[in-house]
Amino acid sequence: MSSIRLFILGSLDQRGPMHGHGLLLLAEEEHIDLWTDFAASAVYGAMKRLAAEGLIVEDRVERQGNYPERQVYRISDAGRIALHDLRRQGLVEIVIKPDPVDLALARLDPEGLDELPVIIEERLARLRTHLEEYTTHLEEVDKYLSVAEVWSMRHQLSRWRGEVAWHEELLTALPDIITDEKELSTKGHD
After folding, report:
1. 31 partner at 20 to 30 Å CA-CA among 53, 154, 156, 160?
2. How many angstroms separate the Cα of 38 from the Cα of each of 7, 8, 167?
Protein backbone atom coordinates (compact mmCIF):
# COMPACT_ATOMS: atom_id res chain seq x y z
CA MET A 1 0.00 0.00 0.00
CA SER A 2 1.44 3.33 -1.03
CA SER A 3 0.51 6.22 1.24
CA ILE A 4 1.88 8.83 -1.14
CA ARG A 5 -0.19 7.49 -4.04
CA LEU A 6 -3.26 7.50 -1.79
CA PHE A 7 -2.53 11.08 -0.72
CA ILE A 8 -2.06 12.39 -4.26
CA LEU A 9 -4.96 10.56 -5.86
CA GLY A 10 -7.25 11.24 -2.90
CA SER A 11 -6.34 14.93 -2.86
CA LEU A 12 -6.96 15.32 -6.59
CA ASP A 13 -10.24 13.43 -6.27
CA GLN A 14 -11.48 15.52 -3.32
CA ARG A 15 -10.03 18.93 -4.14
CA GLY A 16 -9.90 18.87 -7.92
CA PRO A 17 -6.98 19.52 -10.27
CA MET A 18 -3.74 20.68 -8.65
CA HIS A 19 -0.08 21.15 -9.47
CA GLY A 20 2.75 19.62 -7.46
CA HIS A 21 3.35 22.75 -5.44
CA GLY A 22 -0.33 22.82 -4.47
CA LEU A 23 -0.05 19.24 -3.24
CA LEU A 24 3.05 20.17 -1.23
CA LEU A 25 1.19 23.07 0.37
CA LEU A 26 -1.70 20.75 1.20
CA ALA A 27 0.68 18.20 2.73
CA GLU A 28 2.22 20.98 4.81
CA GLU A 29 -1.19 22.31 5.83
CA GLU A 30 -2.32 18.83 6.89
CA HIS A 31 1.02 18.07 8.60
CA ILE A 32 1.21 14.86 6.59
CA ASP A 33 4.69 14.10 7.94
CA LEU A 34 3.25 13.67 11.44
CA TRP A 35 0.75 10.95 10.62
CA THR A 36 1.79 9.25 7.40
CA ASP A 37 4.80 7.27 6.29
CA PHE A 38 6.08 9.50 3.50
CA ALA A 39 7.87 12.80 3.19
CA ALA A 40 6.26 15.59 1.21
CA SER A 41 9.50 15.86 -0.78
CA ALA A 42 8.51 12.64 -2.57
CA VAL A 43 5.40 14.19 -4.13
CA TYR A 44 6.97 15.23 -7.46
CA GLY A 45 8.53 11.83 -8.14
CA ALA A 46 5.28 10.09 -7.27
CA MET A 47 3.35 12.42 -9.55
CA LYS A 48 5.66 11.53 -12.45
CA ARG A 49 5.04 7.83 -11.84
CA LEU A 50 1.28 8.32 -11.54
CA ALA A 51 1.24 10.31 -14.79
CA ALA A 52 3.33 7.66 -16.57
CA GLU A 53 0.81 5.04 -15.42
CA GLY A 54 -2.11 7.16 -16.63
CA LEU A 55 -3.57 7.53 -13.13
CA ILE A 56 -3.31 11.32 -13.32
CA VAL A 57 -3.45 13.36 -16.51
CA GLU A 58 -2.46 16.87 -17.50
CA ASP A 59 -5.34 19.28 -17.07
CA ARG A 60 -3.76 22.62 -17.91
CA VAL A 61 -0.70 24.80 -17.44
CA GLU A 62 -0.87 27.64 -14.92
CA ARG A 63 1.29 30.65 -14.34
CA GLN A 64 0.90 33.06 -11.43
CA GLY A 65 2.91 36.26 -11.39
CA ASN A 66 6.63 35.73 -11.91
CA TYR A 67 6.49 32.10 -10.85
CA PRO A 68 7.37 29.46 -13.42
CA GLU A 69 4.66 27.65 -15.34
CA ARG A 70 3.15 24.77 -13.42
CA GLN A 71 1.52 21.70 -14.87
CA VAL A 72 -1.85 21.07 -13.25
CA TYR A 73 -3.00 17.45 -13.03
CA ARG A 74 -6.36 15.82 -12.47
CA ILE A 75 -7.21 12.28 -11.54
CA SER A 76 -8.15 10.02 -14.46
CA ASP A 77 -10.84 7.33 -14.53
CA ALA A 78 -8.09 4.72 -14.10
CA GLY A 79 -6.81 6.80 -11.18
CA ARG A 80 -10.23 6.66 -9.51
CA ILE A 81 -10.23 2.87 -9.81
CA ALA A 82 -6.70 2.74 -8.34
CA LEU A 83 -7.77 5.17 -5.59
CA HIS A 84 -10.69 2.93 -4.66
CA ASP A 85 -8.28 -0.01 -4.32
CA LEU A 86 -5.75 2.05 -2.32
CA ARG A 87 -8.43 3.28 0.08
CA ARG A 88 -9.60 -0.28 0.64
CA GLN A 89 -6.02 -1.56 1.11
CA GLY A 90 -5.32 1.22 3.60
CA LEU A 91 -8.31 0.20 5.68
CA VAL A 92 -7.71 -3.56 5.46
CA GLU A 93 -3.91 -3.89 5.76
CA ILE A 94 -2.25 -3.77 9.16
CA VAL A 95 1.21 -2.23 9.14
CA ILE A 96 3.37 -2.16 12.23
CA LYS A 97 6.98 -1.83 11.26
CA PRO A 98 9.77 -3.40 13.30
CA ASP A 99 11.73 -1.02 15.50
CA PRO A 100 15.53 -1.51 15.52
CA VAL A 101 15.45 -1.18 19.32
CA ASP A 102 14.07 -4.72 19.50
CA LEU A 103 17.04 -6.27 17.71
CA ALA A 104 19.49 -4.09 19.64
CA LEU A 105 17.87 -5.21 22.88
CA ALA A 106 18.05 -8.86 21.84
CA ARG A 107 21.75 -8.47 20.91
CA LEU A 108 23.09 -6.37 23.76
CA ASP A 109 26.78 -5.55 24.03
CA PRO A 110 28.09 -7.27 27.17
CA GLU A 111 30.59 -4.44 27.59
CA GLY A 112 27.84 -1.78 27.53
CA LEU A 113 25.35 -3.26 29.98
CA ASP A 114 26.09 -0.74 32.72
CA GLU A 115 25.20 2.19 30.48
CA LEU A 116 21.94 0.58 29.29
CA PRO A 117 19.68 2.23 31.93
CA VAL A 118 20.93 5.70 30.97
CA ILE A 119 20.40 4.99 27.25
CA ILE A 120 16.85 3.75 27.84
CA GLU A 121 16.05 6.68 30.17
CA GLU A 122 17.24 9.11 27.49
CA ARG A 123 15.23 7.28 24.84
CA LEU A 124 12.15 7.40 27.08
CA ALA A 125 12.65 11.12 27.69
CA ARG A 126 12.76 11.74 23.92
CA LEU A 127 9.60 9.68 23.45
CA ARG A 128 7.80 11.60 26.20
CA THR A 129 8.85 14.90 24.62
CA HIS A 130 7.60 13.78 21.23
CA LEU A 131 4.33 12.58 22.75
CA GLU A 132 3.86 15.92 24.52
CA GLU A 133 4.60 17.88 21.34
CA TYR A 134 2.28 15.69 19.27
CA THR A 135 -0.51 16.02 21.87
CA THR A 136 -0.13 19.81 21.94
CA HIS A 137 -0.10 19.96 18.15
CA LEU A 138 -3.26 17.86 17.90
CA GLU A 139 -5.02 20.15 20.40
CA GLU A 140 -3.96 23.19 18.32
CA VAL A 141 -5.10 21.84 14.94
CA ASP A 142 -8.10 19.83 16.10
CA LYS A 143 -10.54 22.60 15.16
CA TYR A 144 -9.29 22.63 11.56
CA LEU A 145 -9.60 18.88 10.98
CA SER A 146 -12.43 16.68 9.87
CA VAL A 147 -13.61 14.00 12.28
CA ALA A 148 -11.78 11.36 10.22
CA GLU A 149 -8.55 13.38 10.24
CA VAL A 150 -8.76 13.76 14.02
CA TRP A 151 -9.14 9.99 14.36
CA SER A 152 -6.15 9.48 12.06
CA MET A 153 -4.02 11.70 14.25
CA ARG A 154 -5.39 10.10 17.42
CA HIS A 155 -4.27 6.72 16.06
CA GLN A 156 -0.72 8.01 15.82
CA LEU A 157 -1.06 9.51 19.30
CA SER A 158 -2.10 6.14 20.73
CA ARG A 159 0.97 4.55 19.15
CA TRP A 160 3.24 7.11 20.83
CA ARG A 161 1.52 6.46 24.15
CA GLY A 162 2.07 2.74 23.66
CA GLU A 163 5.77 3.32 23.00
CA VAL A 164 6.11 5.39 26.15
CA ALA A 165 4.30 2.72 28.22
CA TRP A 166 6.47 -0.10 26.78
CA HIS A 167 9.68 1.82 27.50
CA GLU A 168 8.53 2.53 31.07
CA GLU A 169 8.01 -1.21 31.55
CA LEU A 170 11.39 -1.92 29.94
CA LEU A 171 13.08 0.48 32.32
CA THR A 172 11.71 -1.42 35.33
CA ALA A 173 12.78 -4.74 33.76
CA LEU A 174 16.35 -3.61 33.05
CA PRO A 175 17.88 -4.96 36.28
CA ASP A 176 16.63 -8.46 35.38
CA ILE A 177 17.72 -8.06 31.75
CA ILE A 178 21.20 -6.90 32.76
CA THR A 179 21.60 -9.72 35.30
CA ASP A 180 20.49 -12.27 32.72
CA GLU A 181 22.82 -10.87 30.05
CA LYS A 182 25.79 -10.90 32.42
CA GLU A 183 25.07 -14.52 33.32
CA LEU A 184 24.78 -15.47 29.64
CA SER A 185 28.01 -13.65 28.89
CA THR A 186 29.80 -15.51 31.70
CA LYS A 187 28.44 -18.88 30.50
CA GLY A 188 29.55 -18.07 26.96
CA HIS A 189 33.15 -17.62 28.11
CA ASP A 190 33.27 -20.86 30.15
Report:
1. 53
2. 10, 12, 25
Q: How far apart are CA 68 and CA 58, in angstroms?
A: 16
DSSP E strands: which ranges in the chain? 18-19, 56-62, 70-75
**Residue 35 CB coordination number (10 Å):** 18
User: Which of 92, 110, 139 is the last residue before a domain boundary?
Assistant: 92
Q: Output the tens digit of pLDDT for each of the chain's 190 residues.
A: 789 999 999 999 999 999 999 999 998 888 787 778 878 788 999 999 999 999 999 999 988 888 888 999 999 999 999 999 999 999 999 988 899 999 999 999 999 999 999 999 999 999 999 999 999 988 988 888 889 888 988 999 999 999 999 999 999 999 999 999 999 888 865 5
Coil, strand or helix at 35: helix
For residue 69, the 8-state DSSP code is P
> What is the number of structural domains in the chain?
2
Domain that holds residue 179: 100-189
